[in-house]
Amino acid sequence: MSALRALLLSVSAIAALYAMRSSTPGYGDITAPIAVRGAVGERVESRDFAFGAANVHLARQVRVESFGRIKEYSTSGIWLIIEGAAVAKTETMTLTSAEWLAGNGLRYELSQRFSTVPGYLPTERLEPGLPRPVLLAFELPEAAVDKGTLLVARSLVMPLAEELWITLGDKQPTDIKPSVTIARGSSGTPWTLAAR
Amino acid sequence: MSEKRTFWICLLALVVALPLAFVVRAWESLREGHWLATQKAEIVVEDGAGQAFAGGQWKLLDMRRLPRTNDARVILAEFEASPTDPAVLSQGACRVRLIDSEGRRFEPVTLTEPIVREMYPEVAERPRCGVLAFTDAKTGATVRMAESFIVPAEARDLSLRIEFPGASDETLIFK
Predict the structure, then answer these.
(1) What ipTM goes with this model?
(2) 10-residue stretch averages of pLDDT, chain A, 196 residues long
(3) According to CATH, what is the number of the domain A33-195?
(4) Is the CB of B151 inside 8 Å of chain A's CB atoms?
(5) Which CATH fold would you assign to the domain B42-174?
(6) Where exactly are the structural domains of chain A?
């Protein structure tokens, strides 16, 4: 009887230890950024900065007009283009990390194919109290747009910093445009965006 | 020793050993956190007075507010340092920031603003605060520097904050 009890006890102890071992969060999870949730069309605040996504466009092709020359960026997937505004609150900074978290858990980094787009998020220096219009572009498979979330943070490698999680909500575009042209804007706006 | 007594001694040892293991493992982090949290000493200087700091005699010459856009202004800060200990000065890395009444921290801009070049061309030519400014200067000569910042139009009570890690643990603040 006592042997059976000892056996049961040790089996349950092993089971408990195994459960604890497999449910222990990894270092990456422990130090992951803290999510601040919001939606497109609203200003989402973190302690150090605020960001608002205003317009969302889907396109098969992006044309960038710069100094009279037009560069065409095609893709086998689609382009997701987000127009928004960002402002620093405590100190001068640049928002260097923007990712698209697809519904299936895959993360897509901000496209690095553009070098000359005015107002592109990682190139915009933000001074506290002075909002700047910013532009973001992701190159995605078509299926990754649905139920996706935009993640914006100051840096990828800052543990326990805040990260904005912005869902498309009802602002998800229904149609995919064949082409979107981004040009340098005149005074006031840094760029103009025309869909075709 | 009875079995019961051993059991209690072991249990008690566990109560002591577990927190001890935690503290030993976290000791370095705790010390580092404490070091980060402690405020660095500040030297506050008002009304354009001179002040010894990081191997030099420092002085704020001028802080001008220039127009930029409707809601933004350019702040042009001009200051000088006469090296008293050039060896110390050339060791450190100068870090300049502007702080407003709400505690917002503005970094200096890297490219000279057009308005500065236009209105104060001689100031625009001045070096920014850094090792280069001091190595290029002749020994004993006063080094005049300029930094510009972009701030919101409503920013008030601006103070210039100069840190010199490597040469001084203190922070110099011009009000």
Answers:
(1) 0.79
(2) 90 96 88 91 94 93 88 93 95 94 92 86 93 94 92 87 90 87 81 84
(3) 2.60.40.1240
(4) yes
(5) Immunoglobulin-like (2.60.40)
(6) 33-195
